Structures are given as C-alpha cells and as structure tokens.
Amino acid sequence: MSTSTDHGRPDPEATPPAPGDDGRPVSDRGDTVCVIGAGASGLTAVKNLREHGFGVDCYERETGVGGAWNWRHDRSPVYASTHLISSKPFTQFPDFPMPDSWPDYPHHSQLLSYFERYADHFDLRSHIWFGTEVVRVEPAPGERWDVTTRSTGGYGPERTSRYAAVVIANGHNWSPKLPRYEGLEEFRGEIMHSSSYKDPAQLRGKRVLVVGAGNTGCDIAVEAAQQASRCWHSTRRGYWYAPKYVLGRPADQVNDSLLALRVPLRVRQWLYHWTLRLTVGDLTRFGLPKPDHRVYETHPIANSQLVYYVGHGGIGPVPDIARFHPYAVELADGREIDPEVVVFATGYLPRFEFLDASVFGDSAGAGRPTLWLNAFTPGHPTLAVAGLVQPDSGLFTLSHWQTVLFARLLQARRDRPERAAAFAQRVRERAGERYSGQVKESSRHWFEVGHADYLRAVQRALVDLEGK
C-alpha cells in the first residue's frame, strides 16, 4: 500500500508505482475509494465515505464543484432562468439544510453557492483533483479497480491508480440526445440542442420551434413566448402538466403528504384529475394533445406558465415533426411552419465513456445499465453509481442515502463478509427492479423512481445489511 498525505492524496515521496499486468505503472492507493465527479452526487459520496472512515480521491474534469449546476462548466445544461422544479425541503441534503430565507424554488446560482458551502463545511475540496478527467476504469485483481486519469483536455501524461472501490457520479444530463428526421441536414435555419441554450436573447425576435415536452422544453417554450416573434411547441404525445403550487403549497409537498398517508395510486390519480378540472380544465381545448397514459405513469411536467401562454396565444402547440425542408418544417398533420430557430429539448443519454459497457450489463452499449436500486451492478460489489435516478422529487436526498448504503457495504465487506455476500446475492437477483410503478418505455423514463418507494427500498437494504 502506498503512503499518503493526511487528506488522502498520494505522497510524492512514496515508493514508485509498480507495473500493472500490461506493463503500465500503477500506483496502489490501498483502501482508498475513487469518486468520479464533484457535482451533487459526487460531493455527498466523498462526504459519506469520509465519515465512514475511508480515504477518498475524487476526480473532477472541471475547475470547481457543482457539476450540472455550475453554469461555468462546458457540460452544464443550466440556462439563465433555471430554477429547481422540486421544492427546497425535498431537494436539500438531509444533513445540510438550505437557508430558511431562500425561496421555495431556488435559482441555479443559489444552488451553486449551496454546493460550495457544502464542500467547505465538510472540508471536501482537499480530497478533489480538479481539472482531471477519468480516461479508463478497469477491473483489477481482488475486486479492485484501475483508474487512469489525465489533465482535462488531454494535456500531460496519463496516470493509473489502483483503488479498493469506485463511485461513478459523472451525471447523466450532459450528453445531448438528438432525434433524427428526414431532411434535417438540408434545413437552412438554426438548429440547437437545449444544452446550448443559455439566455432568451438567443430567441429574441425570431420564429422559434421548440421540440420536446420535458421540463426544459416547456421552460424554453415559455421564454420563447415572451421573446420570440412566434413560438411553436412540438410534442410527440400528450403530457400531464402540474402547477408548482397546489392549495397554497409547493405541489411536491402536497403529493408527499398523500404518499406518507399511503394513499393508493388510483385515489391520487383521481385527486390530480379533480384538481386539474378545477384549475385549467380539459387541456385538449387549448390544442394540447390528450395524454396516452394515466397521470403518474410518467412524472408530470412541473410548469405553471405553459398553459397560461398557450391560452394567451404565445405558444402554438403542434404535433410531431414529419420531415424538414430547407426553409420549412412539415408536421405530422401535413401542415408546414417556417421557424428560423429549432431548439431540440429532447433530453440526454447517460454516458460512461471510461468504462466498458459490459461491466454494467449493457451489452448493446445503449447507455442503460442493469442495476439494483439504480446504483449496484451484479458481479462488481466494489462499484456503485450515484445519482442515476429521475425522481418525482429532489435528487440530493436519494444520492445521500445511496452513498451511505455503499459506504456501509464496504464496511461490511471488511467486518461482516457474510452480510456483504448476502447483499451481493440480492443485487444479482433484483437488478433492473423498478421503483415507479408502470412507466412509459422510453429512454426519458429509464431512471424514473418514486422517491417514497425508492427511499423505503434503500432503508430496507440498510437494515438487511446491518442485520437488524
């Protein structure tokens, strides 16, 4: 085992790295755990692993913490008006509350300051290698991992270190998913993915077509309604639109109260429809398509303004795109429109470029790992993924408990191997289990979870692991 400094980084005076199986020098980091990414999930992984007694090396390709919420980062999907879509109590880390003075739905700049304060409060920065990207993660003897890194941008030599375990927390909202349409290459207007959208000035005075009905697509359509000369909003199917406030409270807090009371799904669906009838009524009268699924079979879109601007004529709902022409877009119903700018708010695909897809049971390389609790992969008990969930509430609490569970699993591998073996068997048996009832089968919904069901499942896993 190599010696190290107090904060977990390799000591330059230590014994030179030994060669690996392929002749590369490998620095043995002993029982240290590698965390990839210093966004929300990576930060809580570092904090929880340290609290459970593990040394940690965290590699972050950017120069600061915050991941997707740091708008300075090249891969950040954040735009100027981005706010939380889950309310403050259901978003914050359970051991680090957001200030009482903050609004129910904080701005992205507040989220970044929150992560910076979190990192400082728990002294996490000393365990993070900024400006360092992970090139490869490969299984090594003894269920360990060889992690090869280099300076971001490919400058300088590569360096390989051997770790006892790895937590992957590189996020899943940075690799744009772009649709394919006939004639798209010949279209003479401007094409952008929502990942390139930063400010409504990009739309000002232009004819804009927004494609996609996720939360981002709806936000951009609302901004286009205010800034563009004309806005069309194209969706493939109908969706349920939830206001951000219900009965004077953030909608997720009202929904959580029903979940805490174990109100059956059918009753919650009836209550949602009843609320919708009392507020905006039948959305099809606005020209929005009728949903092809029941509410809560996908997570409703949290947006209080889309229906307002549709009702005021600022947004024109249109169906899916049939094909592109050089100066027009043909819609599925045969109409043609003439946008100058097309914004594809069509989501992202998870990418783990540094890891062979077969490690996750993803033989096709489609980006959909086979995991238990969206975190643990069969056959690799020292590898975990943090934050690969799309919850119906905030993410940070889920990432916190995922990484607590992984830290205690690593402790059990050392102190109670029979418990760790039982846990590994459970991963093999239950990988791919869902925690969101019946959902639509599309890449957008691969990682959807109901937060209450998911947290109960994590709690059961913790109890079973500790033998209580």
TrEMBL record:
TM region positions: none
Gene3D superfamilies: FAD/NAD(P)-binding domain
Gene Ontology terms for molecular function: flavin adenine dinucleotide binding; N,N-dimethylaniline monooxygenase activity; NADP binding
Annotated region (Disordered), positions in chain: 1-31
The entry's keywords: FAD, Flavoprotein, NADP, Oxidoreductase
Record field: compositional bias (Basic and acidic residues): 1-12, 21-31
InterPro entries, per the entry: FAD/NAD-bd_sf (IPR036188), Flavin_mOase (IPR000960), Flavin_mOase-like (IPR020946), FMO-like (IPR050346)
Family: Belongs to the FAD-binding monooxygenase family. Belongs to the FMO family.
Protein name: Predicted flavoprotein CzcO associated with the cation diffusion facilitator CzcD
Originating species: Micromonospora chokoriensis
